[in-house]
Design brief:
heterodimer; A: about 550 residues; Beta-Lactamase; 5-stranded antiparallel sheet; elongated; B: alpha/beta; 5-stranded parallel sheet
């Protein structure tokens, strides 16, 4: 009977053990039994799998054989703590090496007691929490990232607000008036200075067309119609426009009908190649105009004063030389002639300086009429006949058969031609040769190594005189320039002639250039557009 | 030349040397010459002596030449018609001068420093010999 009971019990125990083993091996968690010496007593299937070893390889082995020393020691420490305290340790989160690599595991360890309640080791129950840890980590990172983005946004926002405030302050306080319009010319914005200068308010003009609320007069006091308004031109052409202190004067009219002269810059606002509006920046130049006027008046007065004594000398010497005050000795006559000559040079110099200062101030005018250019050239040559004959120069003229009619400022044209002829005469030896040719030339033709880009009326004056030294040729058109070789042979002359001639041509749309060789001679070319000299207002005539 | 003996010229010029030289030359040429050193005296002399022609400077103290010319023109029929030659070193493109020229119609406007005495005399004779319209 006992034997059967023994067998039955043994079978039951075996059954139980088998059941237990099946359960243990089915559980996805890792289960292991360890003794006090850090050896695996029993492990389950899941544990074997994660360790990549068989039960045989693990059971009975020390952790020191399986894990790196440090890790094994850490595990043992935990175990001993539990064994000592007889208290379980739960939720131990630690890293572990495995066949799959580094893992995060969460372990629960409880004391392993025998039938006498002696602690003989620990039982461990571990789960792979790598994924959870990763998720937690990701969340934490995301939180930090979001916080950073928020901070950055906040910084950017305050930067933007600061910039906006600055912009507004700048626009409001720009010392110049600012007008902004849309593509139709309706006013978008008027800054404070513009409001002040024009005597109006942004609210009054916003949305209205510029031509209806801002009025402009020219020098003659005539209101500019829409087609002549600069804003209109900019809107249509997309090119910027300017009104400067030089050049014709324009006045903006205030709401109280008073007016002031302006300088302005109007630029188009272009988006995707289309003009979507304009911005005008303008200022009151009353003071500048007054200064210019004062300068100009001073120069007029100064030159008037400077010419008074020489005028007296001129008249007195004339009377003496005329014999009206008695017969003169030869030497007396000679000296008086020299006085008259020197005196005339002074008068010429003052006139030249007056012209130069008018040119510099941009304060000289160009008025054109239709003239026979060839006729004027001929009359100048006739006027200078005595000088030409005195030096016994051979003067040849080449001219076309037909008359050439051209829009010219006659006095200025005379200054140009006579200066060039006088230079040719002065800088050619006694008995030398001078040739003057004038003709119409077409766009595309070459003249004096230059390609003409328009139809021009041209005058070519060539001499076989002293020429201009190569090293000085770039200074020919500067003030008071006279070639070293010229100075040697011919001491008088103001040195301002070519500067004045070039300034006149520059301002009237003409050209001047030359080719010269020292001791061989020079050829000067001047070209005036067949369309005529460009008109220029806002000043006085130059003195011939 | 006998005409010139009776012909009276008034020279109004503040620079005494220039004034004297014009006067000397004109007298040598047979004219009868009065002189004044400023516009006020010039106006007085003109109205009193009624010269056949006036040589008038512009920049003068007390009363300038343009003002004198304007007052003279407005005074009476003599003043309206007497030939005036403006002689100055100022540029004619000054706005006030241009306006005055248009308004008061001087016979000529000559730049002193450009015109020698004999040429001025020629211009005077030219103007005086022009048949009255």
């Amino acid at each position: 009977m006992e034997k059967i009971n023994q067998r039955k019990t043994k079978k039951q125990i075996e059954e139980r053990n088998r059941e237990l083993q099946i359960i243990l091996d089915s559980i996805p968690a890792w289960i292991f039994y360890k003794d006090k010496e850090n050896r695996f007593i029993k492990v389950n299937e899941a544990f074997c799998k994660v360790m990549g070893k068989t039960k045989k390889e693990l059971e009975g082995k020390s952790l020191f054989d399986i894990y790196p020393k440090k890790q094994a020691e850490a595990f043992l420490k935990d175990d001993l703590e539990i064994i000592e305290s007889a208290k379980p340790k739960r939720n131990i989160v630690e890293q572990m090496n495995s066949a799959k690599g580094e893992l995060w595991i969460k372990t629960d360890k409880i004391p392993y007691t025998d039938e006498n309640n002696n602690i003989i080791g620990i039982i461990g129950f571990a789960l792979d929490v790598t994924d959870q840890i990763q998720i937690e980590k990701n969340l934490e990172n995301a939180k930090i990232a979001a916080k950073n983005v928020l901070e950055d946004l906040s910084i950017e926002k305050s930067k933007l607000e600061t910039a906006r405030a600055k912009e507004k302050a700048i626009l409001l306080s720009i010392g110049d008036g600012l007008i902004a319009t849309d593509e139709k010319g309706n006013i978008i914005f008027l800054n404070k200075t513009a409001e002040k200068l024009l005597g109006t308010k942004n609210e009054k003009v916003a949305g209205k067309n510029f031509s209806e609320v801002i009025f402009v007069e020219d020098e003659k006091g005539i209101f500019l119609p829409l087609e002549k308004r600069h804003i209109n031109k900019v809107l249509i052409t997309g090119e910027p426009a300017f009104i400067t202190t030089a050049g014709p004067t324009y006045y903006y009219v205030r709401s109280d009908k008073t007016k002031f002269p302006v300088a302005t810059t109007i630029t188009p606002v272009v988006l995707d190649k289309k003009v979507i509006g304009v911005i005008e920046v303008f200022r009151d130049i009353t003071q500048e105009k007054e200064i210019d006027k004062a300068k100009s008046e001073f120069i007029s007065l100064a030159s008037h004063q400077l010419k008074t004594p020489p005028t007296a000398i001129k008249m007195l010497t004339e009377r003496l030389l005329g014999g009206k005050m008695g017969e003169l000795e030869k030497k007396q006559k000679e000296y008086l002639t020299d006085i008259r000559y020197s005196n005339q040079r002074m008068i010429d110099l003052v006139n030249a300086l007056l012209n130069v200062s008018r040119i510099e101030l941009g304060a000289f005018i160009i008025q054109v009429n239709e003239k026979d250019a060839g006729c004027i050239v001929q009359s100048i040559i006739d006027e200078l006949k005595s000088v030409i004959d005195k030096k016994q120069l051979k003067f040849k003229i080449i001219s076309p058969k037909k008359n050439i009619m051209l829009m010219l400022d006659e006095p200025l044209f005379r200054i140009i031609i006579s200066n060039l002829i006088i230079n040719a005469v002065n800088y050619t030896e006694q008995g030398g040769e001078i040739q003057l040719e004038y003709k119409i030339m077409d766009k595309g033709q070459m003249l004096g190594e230059k390609l003409l880009e328009e139809n021009y009326f041209t005058v070519i004056i060539s001499d076989k005189g002293y020429g201009i030294p190569q090293y000085q040729q770039d200074k020919v058109f500067t003030k008071f320039f006279r070639g070293d070789n010229a100075r040697e042979k011919h001491t008088d002359g103001t040195g301002l002639g070519l500067y004045i001639v070039k300034s006149i041509l520059d301002n009237s749309g003409g050209l001047i250039w030359f080719v010269s060789n020292e001791n061989k001679g020079s050829t000067f070319y001047i070209a005036i557009p067949m369309a005529g000299m460009k008109v220029k207002t806002g000043g006085k005539e130059l003195i011939c | 030349m006998t005409d010139d003996k009776k012909t009276k010229i008034l020279v109004v010029e503040d620079e005494s040397i220039i004034n004297k030289t014009y006067a000397d030359e004109l007298r040598d040429e047979g004219f009868f010459v009065f002189t004044a050193g400023n516009g006020r005296d010039g106006l007085e002399l003109a109205l009193r002596e009624k010269p056949d022609l006036i040589l008038l400077d512009i920049l003068m103290p007390i009363m300038d030449g343009l003002t004198m010319m304007d007052k003279l023109r407005k005074k009476d029929s003599y003043g309206k018609n007497v030939p005036i030659i403006l002689l100055t070193n100022l540029s004619s493109s000054e706005k006030e001068i241009l306006d005055a020229i248009v308004k008061d119609e001087p016979a000529y406007y000559l730049i002193k420093s450009d015109w020698d005495l004999s040429s001025v005399v020629e211009k005077i004779r030219e103007r005086l010999n022009r048949p009255q319209l």
